[in-house]
Design goal:
alpha/beta; Aspartate Aminotransferase, domain 2; Aspartate Aminotransferase, domain 1; eight-stranded mixed beta sheet; 15 helices; 13 strands; globular
Length: 384
């Protein structure tokens, strides 16, 4: 029986040709024509100024630099997120303040944000988990009332929207990921989206090692030099060439993933109706990009056994984050507000199923059937 991998990076069709063109152009570092075309696509589609980076992590680190954080400043964020969300701000000496997530969407709990804000708070990071946007109006209202910035960690949310507006266009700054596991990929890669025009020029400086090289290339200065902090945050032209081929078919890739997501959702509905698991919830204000299909089972023991047994059947299911507030680095560098019960439960109960563009209906049926059999067997429940 064929293996069902957790992820299989998609191909749009022009990747090899564009990479060959990039090589023929003899411009392989960042800032080449393919990179500019990717940034133009993102700006045209999403709205904000877009700067390609070598990773979403780099874009988050640039966000922390742009916010000019001082040691001891605080940044409110969910504990249920990847380590880069916190690392970017810890590197600037800031303290991540971990709060709980919503029980329905597993995104940042807007009600918890208000309680976490102190006089040292400088920003709130809204993580759009599973491609479902946070309730950005409520987050923005709290942030505005306390004069703090909003950073979107939109690593999983390209092509998702909130009330018709694209993820990444909703905060002061945003970070995208084009990692191999994302819907649109360049292997490794990311982008910083800058919604505040006052930050654009400095963002260009930060990305080019703290120099005003971008102004030099536009003919605005006769030489470039070191003018600020910065690092080598750009994306190579080879990665950008691959990425452009993906962006050109982003709508098709999204539609295909949504098809697979819908097949899972329909197949697993009987298990939810019988109270045997919980499927993802997408609120009315959001349209998602089918970045992942997850489900919540009863407890850690059941989650562990089901993942083991699915993998024994050659279906590569995985769990997700270890909550940051409970990690050794999280306790050393940050602090939690409250007990974060939803975060702890989600971390113990969540299973991610295989999902990629081009996944066959047969692979979905096989995965869903195996899951159905395992859950019913463990609970002693007959098929519906």
């Amino acid at each position: 029986m064929a293996h069902v991998p957790f992820n299989r990076p998609p191909l749009g069709g022009n990747e090899a040709r564009y990479v060959e063109e990039a090589i023929a152009n003899a411009h392989l570092s960042s800032g080449g024509p393919f990179g500019r075309r990717c940034e133009e696509w993102l700006q045209r589609r999403l709205g904000p100024t877009a700067l390609l980076t070598h990773s979403c992590t780099a874009a988050l680190e640039m966000s922390a630099l742009l916010l000019e954080l001082d040691p001891g400043d605080e940044v409110v964020m969910p504990s249920f997120t990847f380590v880069s969300t916190a690392n970017a701000f810890v590197l600037r000496g800031a303290v991540p303040v971990f709060v709980d997530i919503r029980a329905d969407t597993l995104t940042l709990d807007e009600d918890a944000v208000e309680d976490a804000i102190t006089p040292r708070t400088r920003a709130v990071v809204a993580v759009h988990y599973a491609g479902v946007t946070c309730d950005m109006d409520r987050i923005a209202a709290v942030a505005s009332a306390h004069d703090v910035a909003v950073v979107e960690d939109a690593a999983q949310a390209l092509m998702s929207t909130y009330k018709g507006r694209h993820a990444g266009s909703l905060g002061d700054l945003a970070a995208l990921s084009f990692h191999e596991t994302k819907n649109v990929t360049s292997g490794e890669g990311g982008a910083l989206l800058v919604n505040d025009p006052r930050l654009v020029e400095r963002a260009e400086v930060l990305r080019t090692k703290g120099t005003d090289r971008a102004r030099f290339l536009r003919g605005e200065v006769d030489k470039y030099t070191w003018v600020d902090l910065g690092s080598s945050y750009g994306l190579s032209e080879l990665n950008a060439a691959f990425l452009l081929a993906q962006l050109e078919v982003a709508d098709e890739l999204t539609a295909d993933r949504l098809r697979t997501w819908g097949l899972y959702h329909e197949a697993l509905a009987p298990l939810e109706e019988q109270g045997l698991l919980r499927r993802p919830i997408v609120p009315g204000y959001a349209s998602h990009n089918a970045h992942m299909y997850y489900l919540l089972v009863d407890d850690l023991e059941e989650r562990t056994r089901i993942i083991e047994e699915l993998n024994a059947r050659d279906v590569n299911a995985v769990f997700h984050y270890v909550p940051l507030h409970s990690s050794s680095a999280g306790t050393r560098f940050g602090r939690a507000v409250g007990e974060l019960p939803v975060t702890r439960e989600a971390a113990d109960r969540l299973i991610r199923l295989p999902l990629w563009a081009g996944m066959s209906e047969g692979d979905v049926e096989r995965t869903a059937a195996a899951l159905d059999s395992l859950v019913r067997q463990r609970r002693g429940v007959a098929s519906a």
